[in-house]
TrEMBL record:
GO function term, MF aspect, one: hydrolase activity
Protein's name in the database: ADP-ribose pyrophosphatase
Keyword Hydrolase recorded: yes
Gene3D superfamilies the UniProt entry points to: Nucleoside Triphosphate Pyrophosphohydrolase (3.90.79.10)
Length: 172
């Protein structure tokens, strides 16, 4: 595979869209790509409870229960970004971060790589939230979150991955 040409079509606050022309086994193809700097996902664990955020997601058109998450700044270490997002959205800092996984959100068209962490040994520490965030912090037991995941009540992929991976880590 060889890239022949890349043309940026759109650049927004978070993403860029480009049209790539590639040579794939001697045949030219056009590929539309959403370029995203990547993000972190954090599953805060407070004693026996998990903390999640409930927020309206405009693109989905509904309110979702999700893990703490946010974009990476250019060159930012994912563990540092995880601490920042945890402070902004949940009001805690983690004494211990456990790297659960790295995965792509939609590799067929998007470059976004998600870095998933569990955050334990929480201590209160608040940073200001982004202006456009209106979130409610929700406390659930691991068993309740696992039940919701298996019943189809958690509809966000990164949240499903986080709950299922953490449950497996803890022998559930």
């Amino acid at each position: 595979m060889r890239v022949i040409r890349q043309e940026e079509i759109y650049r927004g606050r978070v993403i860029a869209v480009r049209r790539d022309r590639i040579d794939l086994d001697g045949k030219e193809r056009t590929w539309d790509v959403v370029a995203h700097p990547g993000a972190v996902v954090v599953l805060p664990v407070d004693g026996d409870d998990l903390l999640m955020v409930r927020q309206y997601r405009y693109a989905a058109g509904e309110t979702l229960l999700e893990l703490v998450a946010g974009g990476l700044e250019p060159g930012e270490d994912p563990a540092e970004a995880a601490q920042r997002e945890l402070q902004e959205e949940a009001g805690f800092r983690a004494g211990r971060l456990i790297r659960l996984a790295e995965f792509y959100s939609a590799p067929g068209f998007c470059t976004e790589k998600l870095h998933l962490f569990a955050a334990e040994e929480l201590t209160p520490s608040r940073l200001p939230m982004d202006e456009d965030e209106q979130i409610e912090l929700v406390r659930l037991s691991l068993d309740e979150a696992l039940r919701m995941a298996l019943a189809g009540e958690l509809r966000d992929a990164k949240t499903l991955a986080g709950v299922l991976l953490y449950a497996r880590l803890r022998g559930r």
